[in-house]
Amino acid sequence: MRIMCLDLGEKTIGIALSDPFGWTAQGLEIINRKGQPKQELNRLREIIKQYEVEKVVVGLPKNMNGTTGPQAEKALDFIEYLKRKLGLVVEAWDERLSTVAAERILLSADISRGKRKKVIDKMAAAVILQGYLDAHSCI
């Protein structure tokens, strides 16, 4: 079962996909948010169809103490929206420190600052998804 993960931001949505076995996560692309939810939804539908996605995981930006703030509330609203529009299972997954982990991975790979900025959101989505996959592994 292939799973898609979304890292929601104010300006972008980072997208990652699992392999067909649900073992590994790879960053796929970034959608630039321009206040046009219909276009965002259409692109998500295209990806779901192309890769035969069966589940969507959305990063939930909890506060460090585990509480939910305004950004988490936006994410929860977006999850409900996706559930209505996509007809798939859509789950929230704690994304605390995912961007920090993605930044560290890119730094360790000696990726330039300019290139890091272009890929950080899809890398963060991959970090979130890998955490989800690891937690749900049957191995």
UniProtKB/TrEMBL annotation:
Q: Where in the cell is it found?
A: Cytoplasm
The species this protein was found in: Desulfofarcimen acetoxidans (strain ATCC 49208 / DSM 771 / KCTC 5769 / VKM B-1644 / 5575) (Desulfotomaculum acetoxidans)
GO MF terms, alphabetically ordered: hydrolase activity, acting on ester bonds; nuclease activity
The EC number(s) given in the record are: 3.1.-.-
The GO annotation for biological process reads: rRNA 5'-end processing
Q: Which is a Pfam family this sequence falls into?
A: RuvX
Function of this protein?
Could be a nuclease involved in processing of the 5'-end of pre-16S rRNA.
Q: What is its main location?
A: cytoplasm
Keyword annotations for this protein, in alphabetical order, are:
Cytoplasm, Hydrolase, Nuclease, Ribosome biogenesis
Stated family = Belongs to the YqgF HJR family.
InterPro entries documented for this protein: RNaseH-like_sf (IPR012337), YqgF (IPR005227), YqgF/RNaseH-like_dom (IPR006641), YqgF/RNaseH-like_dom_sf (IPR037027)
- What protein name does the entry list? Putative pre-16S rRNA nuclease
Q: Please tell me one Gene Ontology term that the record gives under cellular component.
A: cytosol
Q: Return the SMART domains for the record.
A: YqgFc
Keyword Transcription listed: no
Residues forming the YqgF/RNase H-like domain are 1-102
Read off the HAMAP family from this record: Nuclease_YqgF (MF_00651)
The record, for CDD domains, names: YqgF (cd16964)
